[in-house]
Amino acid sequence: MDALERYIESPPPGYALLVAGTWGVGKSFFWHKFAQRLTALNKKPITISVAGLESRDDLESAIFQASIEEFGPAALREATKVIGRSLLRYVNIEPNEIRLKADFQSGSTVVCIDDIERFGGDFLALFGFIVNLVDSAKVHCVLIADEEKAEERHEDYRSFKERIVGKTIGFTSDTEAFCRDCLNGLRSQRVRELLLPYLTKVVETFRIRKIENLRALRYFITEFADVVERARPDRRADLTPLLSSVAFWAIATAKSSANLKLVSNAFQEEQHVLYFHNQDEDQGGRVESLNERTARLLADLQFREDVYYWPRSAEFSNLVASRPVDYQRLAEDFHLTEELCVPSEGERVSRNLQNFRELSDLQLQESITEARALIQSGDEKNLSLVFDMFRSLHFLSEVGLFAIDPNEWCQEAINNIRQYDSDAIAPTAAAIEVFGVQLSDGERRVLNEVRALAERVEREGSRRERDELIRKVLETDEPLPDLVGSRRLFAGVEPAEFQLRLRRAGTQAVVRLHRMIRTASRIGGAGQFLAEDAPFYRQLAEEIRAAVEVTVPMTMLNAEMIALSRGLDELADFVAPIEHQNPQ
Question: Is the pTM here over 0.85, yes or no?
Fold first, then answer.
């Protein structure tokens, strides 16, 4: 601040200079950094806070102790006001026998009085103390205050200010400098190296939300650094989603501690899909649900778009709620581990399209070409990403950045998706959920095509999973699957064909299947899971009895087959008694 430097470099003018700004904007932090430069100018800074002080004696004691701090050892200098009396004795001064006076040098001493608005006594005492500094001691005097609060607490503040303050400097925070200082001050070199590249992102996160409270920013950096240190992300990991999540936490709780519950709720897995409530919808006087209040907070703090990139993380919810946290799981949730941190080509392209305003024209067109090629080829196996890329390109076509008519693009996407090989897509990559967004007719037709593909993938995946479980039963000695837990294991299986396969598999396969049937028959409530398979059990039992020639002596295979047929009938009666079945 040039005005502050000119004030201090000139002879004492007989008035104080006021640095004014709202609470938390960084006035004290600024002064601390500025005061460190004064010794190079042959100036001695003496800084006190008048928060909680009430009398002239309190003020003189505080200023004296601040003036002799340099004489005590470091540990003693950092002590509280109570220990301050020990500091006096350290320099051979008996605090009860003297009236505390600081030795000021006019023109060399700069006294800073911070927290003016928090002075606890009669403001006249503080006024007289400041007048004495500027008139009698003839020193430079810098005052720091939140004027709005000072006027609220001291009705005579304005009149006294006019008599002692010659110049007022309105202070606004330098968020970037503050943030850089905080990051450079982190104790862990690894964490510093990980976080410093995100300096611009941090500043922008707070700037667009008009957050000037540096205490909230310091709290964010402290928490962000702590999470990063504990989660130990791979150096290649993208920390942006974690940064945004911690920022939401810090900003929301800086607004009100009551928001903690909403922040924690924002990362509950079962609640995540409900965030996109319509914030313009009239509630009709009813009380908002927890999810609705969470969605409103996300919108109010401008994190509604960020939530798109946040994972559903029970561990982050635990962190916010001060519950025990598994940081390894948290790192996995945010794709920070070595195995998960490198985005796929589709993820990279989709992210570029989502943040297209940050790209150059050339980069944007390259990303559009890449996304279109991925959708055309079917190389991207994650259907959610496919639809995301399609929607991004649809939007870009609407605003003229993608050189194709939106309707033509919808039809092209549909034609591409119809050519996808459902066998090449894993069921876990087929899940697609779209909530709370307005879709055009064309977009909805594409979504329906993607969902139809997802249903085929799920059906075929379930069939493959069932085939593998049956193979394990018949062809291996691996642990038997849980028939109840493997719901509809025999869905779509022809009893006659299965009987032949079972016979070919041999005696041990029949014994294993019978054991699995008997286990299911002992589980209470199995009917709600197996009732639909009861007709298969009965038909398979009939096929077995029809195929087995009853002779004496019987072969081991035939004996076990007959025993299995009885077990199948018993299981069918257990899960779906005939008298309770609907007539065909």
Answer: no
Count other C-beta atoms under 10 Å from residue 158's C-beta.
11
Look up tokens 């077990």; give the residue. Answer: 567
Closest CA to 209 of 103, 299, 102: 299
**Residue in the block written with tokens 């948290």:** 330
Integer Cα distance of 356 and 353 in angstroms: 5
Asked if 89 and 95 count as a contact pair (C-beta separation under 8 A), the reply is: yes
Which single residue is written with the structure tokens 């220990």? 83
For tokens 């050892």, name the residue.
73
- Token pair 């008009």: residue: 210
- What's the sign of the alpha-carbon dihedral 536, 537, 540, 546? negative
pLDDT of residue 148: 87
Residues 169, 3 contacting (CB under 8 angstroms): yes
Contact 312, 262 (CB under 8 A): no
Distance CA 264, CA 270 (A): 12
Residue 41 in tokens: 């100018």
Cis amide bond preceding 553, omega within 30: yes
d(CA 31, CA 19): 9
The Cα–Cα gap between 229 and 199 comes to 17
pLDDT at 77: 43
Q: How many whole angstroms separate alpha carbon 388 and alpha carbon 454?
A: 15
Q: Element (H or E) spanning 537, and its range?
A: helix 534-547
Give the max Cα distance, the chain: 125
Express each pLDDT in 142-189 by its tens digit: 999 988 888 888 888 888 888 888 888 888 777 888 888 889 989 999
Is the Cα dihedral 348, 349, 355, 357 positive or negative?
positive
Q: Say which DSSP state 90 is in.
A: H
SS (H, E, C) 172-199: CCCHHHHHHHHHHCCCCHHHHHHHHHHH
**Measured between alpha carbons, how far is 213 from 217 in angstroms, rounded to an integer?**
7
Q: Which of 46-50, 59-63, 288-292 comes out lowest in average pLDDT?
A: 288-292
Question: What is the residue type of 54?
Answer: E
CA–CA distances in Å: residue 116 to residues 143, 154, 512: 7, 10, 83
Residue 342 CA to residue 335 CA, distance in Å, equals: 8
Query: What is the rounded distance in angstroms from the CA atom of residue 192 to the CA atom of residue 197?
Result: 9
Within a 13 Å sphere around the CA of 443, how many CA atoms are in the beta-carbon half?
Answer: 16
Residue percentage of the chain with pLDDT more than 70: 87
CATH superfamily of the 2-172 domain: P-loop containing nucleotide triphosphate hydrolases (3.40.50.300)
**Residue 84: is its pLDDT beyond 70?**
no
- Which 3 state secondary structure label does DSSP give 9? helix
pLDDT of residue 103: 54
What secondary structure does DSSP assign to 335-346, as a single string? T-STTTSS--HH
